[in-house]
Amino acid sequence: MIEYIKKMRKHIGHERLLIVGASVFVHKDGKLLLQKRMDNGCWSDHGGCCEPGENVEETAKRELNEETGLIANKLELIGVFSGKDLDYTYPNGDMVSNVNIAFLCEDFTGDLIYQTNETSDLKWFELGKLPESISPPVVPALNRCVALLTKRKNDKQTIFFSIEPIETYREFVNEQIA
């Protein structure tokens, strides 16, 4: 937990706190890399709270590296998520209203770190075989990410074209010119 949040918690206890954070979904070869969280035992994207003065892309890249060992070379904005679906109470009783700026990362380097002080595991999941135990505040962004990746896959599969020799159309073209 960042120092700012610790300081705020000293004043408000477990009361609801507005949190702005950034998260990253890592995608490769039709699979998403998810982490198993230590705090609630659920699967999640990679992310966390913005520190004062830090922009959301910096937060996303920092959190991805801290939680997975990966370095994001390029991030693509998936969307900004907020509202009742992102209200959450952590197992320790801390209540938050999240504003999450979610990114997709398909261009990355580094070696995976499978366990950190925040995560107990990392695992690649096929888009159609995601685990059931997803951390509740992650669900809206995950749904958008999967829809985006599925649409891209379907768009690639439905592009059909053929190239035929010019002789096939020569007579038609000459008639049109005449």
Could you give me the name of the CATH homologous superfamily? Nucleoside Triphosphate Pyrophosphohydrolase
Specify the number of helices: 4
Structurally, how many domains make up the residues? 1
Main sheet characteristics: 8 strands, mixed
- Quickly give the structural class: alpha+beta
Please compute the radius of gyration using only Cα atoms: 22 Å
Tally of DSSP β-strands: 8
Measured between the Cα atoms of the first and last residue, the distance is 76 Å
Helical content (DSSP H or I, runs of 4+)? 25-40%
Order of helices and strands: HEEEEHEEEEHH
Given as residue ranges, the uncertain stretches (5+ residues, pLDDT < 50) are none
CATH third-tier fold name:
Nucleoside Triphosphate Pyrophosphohydrolase
CATH architecture, by name, is Alpha-Beta Complex
**What would the principal axes of the Cα set say about the shape?**
elongated
Give the C-level CATH assignment: Alpha Beta
Strand content: 35-45%
What is the overall pLDDT average?
A: 91
